[in-house]
Design brief:
Layout lengths: L1 H7 L17 H8 L3 H10 L8 H34 L5 E3 H8 L13 E4 L5 H10 L3 E3 L20 E3 L6 E5 L13 H6 L1 E6 L2 E6 L1 H13 L4 H4 L4 H14 L5 H10 L3 H15 L11 H20 L2 H4 L4 H26 L8 H12 L2 H6 L1
Parallel strand pairs: 2-5
Antiparallel strand pairs: 1-2, 3-4, 4-5, 6-7
Helix pairs in contact: 3-4, 8-10, 8-11, 10-12, 12-13, 13-15
Length: about 375
Amino acid sequence: MRHVWQLLSPGNENPDTQVFKNIRPEFVDIAAIHWLAAFCYERLREISAIETLSEDIQHRLRQECLENRLRNSLLKKALTELLRTFHEQGIEVVLLKGAATFSDDLYSQIGARSMLDLDLLVKEDLLGKAREILVAAGYQEEVDPDKAHDGLATDARHQHINAYVKPGTPVIIELHYHVVYGHGACMLPVDEAWENTLPAEVDGVPCLVFNPTYRLIHNTVHGLVPSCDFIKGEIRMWHLLEFGYLVNRYQHAIDWQVWMQAAERGNYKTAFHAWLLLAQELMGLPWPLENSPSIIEKLHAVRLQYGTLLGPASHVPWLAKSLTFREKGGLLLNKLYYYFMLPSWVWQNVCYTGDEGNISVRIRFFVRKMLNRKSWMKI
């Protein structure tokens, strides 16, 4: 599986397409779990390798891609309409994650990037006005009890209000007032993020995006922190793939020193280095830093590679049977590390209060999370 992702990476312009003849049906299942089935079809067409696959695999990937093309077309149309209204009303909007890819065609095909919603960053004092625009456009609020503010310092962990859905369409809008959830916000503070934006447009309508360095920081933090992906040892491949696309497109504009400074603010240097090593191994990216990774960072990279490549298979019963004893052992070590580090992660991320203080509030919230059935189901 590792060599397949290398061949599909953005920097590999002339892959050996004959390798794809050996792709088995379970590859589609793995790709779908990673949200990359549509990407695989578009990328394989781009490098003239789609015909090397069996008819069954081609059909399954094509169906995923056609559905994603339609969804993305609707999302882009809705985004353009909203951006036009926001612009007319004097509301600046920063496109985040998938929405930002519409501004620069990061993926050459509209069906390549899977996304569930559109993430838009607006100033906190303009949230009410932005919400009114959504309601006037026919969007309906989806109330999420977890987004409720309880008047405690732990409210600092939130980064967006309830999602707004356009009935009868797949369009979902999330209005952000912080860039990243929980502890990740200390690595990418919202004020600093706003200072590092650039003008952009979608179908001629003005908007903003982060500059390449901060876009890369956001990608990395979002891939490592909010869903405890680093301690789980399961990196979602679409995050890593987008990292590769951003580096490939903007390599001369990325300030790696600033990228590392963000890591050091959150004590995530080891995680960032392990992420880079994983990108080097699976995406074929060159090592961009002056300092070489440590032994510990290399071990974490191996742990991430096990979880990223084999983790999805372990969740599918018929695929789990094909795992070797060594592979199962690697996944078991990942799980043990996860359980060992989880209390610390909860304290830092889920109980995040915006600073190192508020100890009594953190303890109170920690106990609440430990007694919450939904929290235990997530574990």
